[in-house]
């Protein structure tokens, strides 16, 4: 990782992901979490204030040292114990069936192998464990014009945000990884350009 990826991108992501418009979505995606939770792409901890009281502990997987430092205040203020427990969502350092639930928010876009990461999440979830997710990705099939713009903008998006993709098919990735989607809401974030803001929010069940 170079200077830009290590020192600049985490600060940009911290600012963008801390926008007030994201707060209701974070609250929604965290609803229903309980027990031991693994969060991939923890970032700078913007989900921490929305962990339900039923969550007993969170294992945070975050590759960026700066991102983790930016999260310090939120982690200290949390009523839920949070520990940094991994660096790579594609290779989780946990035994099979270790967690009751998993959380991923705007993370699958930047993981180099999103399918491998989802398979790892499924592996470390207990049978019947749930993955709570909100991810931006490929626009709905009927919005081909938006998809065309996503394909045009993706090379620039990847350069600016350290590998962030705009065209990953979130539902397809989940089912290919072996999850059963139990709930999904596909929408565009208000106030954002559609090619950058095609979101999928929901829950998926581990077999």
TrEMBL record:
Quick one: a GO biological-process term for this protein? methylation
Q: Name one GO molecular function term.
A: S-adenosylmethionine-dependent methyltransferase activity
Which keywords, in A-to-Z order, does the entry hold?
Methyltransferase, Transferase
Q: Which SUPFAM superfamilies match?
A: S-adenosyl-L-methionine-dependent methyltransferases (SSF53335)
The UniProt entry, under InterPro entries, shows:
Methyltransf_11 (IPR013216), SAM-dependent_MTases_sf (IPR029063), Thiol_S-MT (IPR052356)
Q: Which Pfam families match?
A: Methyltransf_11 (PF08241)
Q: Tell me which domain of life the UniProt entry assigns to the organism this sequence originates from.
A: Bacteria
Q: Which sequence ranges form a coiled-coil region, renumbered to this chain?
A: none
Q: What is this protein called?
A: Methyltransferase
